[in-house]
Amino acid sequence: DIVAGWCLPPAMTATQAPFYNYVRMNLRHAPVHVSDSAFFSALNAWLVWLEPWNTSVRKNRPVASTLSSPTKAKKFLSETVQSLGGKSTKLDTYTSSIVVPKATAPSSYTSAWEPYIAANLHLFTVPLAIFLRRARELDFSPRDFHKSLSYVQKVFRVYTPEIVQVLNRLLSPQSRHGPLNDIITQHERILGEFCPPSGLSLSSCVQDMHNLLEEIYLQHQKKV
Q: Is the pLDDT of residue 76 over 70?
């Protein structure tokens, strides 16, 4: 049963556990020196999941149909809709894509999203810890320095001071007596056996973050 105040739609609720494992496993094991690696696919999907307040949807021009021509494809779709009882003969032939903000874009987060963070608490913490360790393997040589740095910046931009403050509060023992406790409990119930042990905190990531920034700095010194 879903608890009161649960803010995720049914589709996200149903896919939260497998998505969590998809992100966790690919960030941990997929190669970082292959451009089309699952590491980067998982990274981008994870960032979109983390901050819906900073993403938008853009309509694109129609894509090529698997049929022989756009006219035949539209006719086929129109006939399909009509056969299913659809009343409208006007079809939107445009596709949509998610627009991810730039690494330097400001965050649009407000406190109204705090229940969303609670409902995804361990998606904000566990993949972050994994990324900070794996990111040191990125290529920070002069050739790919800016590209690799942009991946780090995209992750860091999610964790604004406001969101870090919320995460620290939700991860504290006192949160178990707070208004969002039922949401966190529901989230952990969904993750089941994959839920991390209690006592996790962002402070455990500090050393890995320091090591990553030190690696970036040292490689930048070589570059200049």
A: no
